[in-house]
Amino acid sequence: MKLKRWIVISSALILLLTGCSDKEQSKEAIKEEPNVEDPKQENPTKEPVEKLYPFSFPLTGVGSDIAVEDRAVAVMINNHPSARPQSGIHKADMVFELLAEGNVTRFLAIFQSEKPEKVGPVRSARDYFIQLAKGYKSLYIAHGYSPEAKQMLESGYIDDLNGMQYDGTLFKRASFRKAPHNSYITFENILKGAEKNKFSMKGQPNAYQFYEKKELDALQGNPAKSIMVSYFSSDLFNVIFDYDEVLGKYKRFSNGELTIDYDTKERVLLDNIMVLEMEHRFIDSYGRREINLTSGGNGYLLQRGKRKEITWKNVDGQIVPFENGTEAKLVPGRTWINVIPKDQGLQKMVSITE
Q1: Which of 76, 244, 327, 333 is deepest in the core (most CB within 10 A)?
Q2: Which SUPFAM superfamilies does the record cross-reference, listed alphabetically (predicted)?
Q3: What is this structure's pTM?
Q4: Which CA distances in Å does 154 have to 110, 158, 283, 294, 299?
């Protein structure tokens, strides 16, 4: 009897243990099997959502959370070799590079979306630079002027601050450079000067057309990894733009040297390069020029390592690229525009490496 009772008890224990083991295995199986219907489970292939901004900056197309109302500031910047590297141009929305006398180029740097702490060296005004600044509704900053430029400024053609009136106050001379390559102004002093003269700092320039992010991968054009603009026989003013595929931007070089900011050492990185033909003519024996900013003409537009042939027009004072009769879109970011004499032409002054 005792043996039978032991056998019954043992059998019961075996069944009980087996049942528990099956339940545990069942629980483990349920625990390990992912619930494909669970909406909380992360999808590793999900694309990041691009933030949509309610506003954008008119000259860069970069988004902004707040309304964009600031007036542009256009600064004449020295490009003599003794003035390099310059300060502040790495934050300019747009830079125009045009010839002054002596086959020396000079910059008009237009700031609206960002303001560097300091800009310079500041150089003297020319009438066609003033006209460009006016087209972008800018406060114009220069130190000195040609006779034609002086007449325009004194007539009230544009709101301006000039180092001839504010040398040593709003404009400061740097000790590490010699005149006329050592005049600088801070954005703090630009705002002080605007307030002193009761210049409004509201009123943004007209906006360009920009690509949406989803359109950028489909950009068309001939390959253009590098472009050189040669200003006559002097290598000192040769400009090279090299496309960096990792950054997706162009780097700029003057006479073989990388263009950087003097103070921060940051590189000037560009998203759009334009080279435009414009009519030039000499107006005096000193070699001063008149440049026709209104006639329109031919040019190149480089973006993302590709080149397009375009035309340009003056639209309400701004220089605007066109492709097949329609305004050409820009890649969101910074733009550099080199202007060359039409009688020399793109074929003679520009070389492109594919």
Answers
A1: 76
A2: YerB-like
A3: 0.85
A4: 22, 9, 20, 23, 34
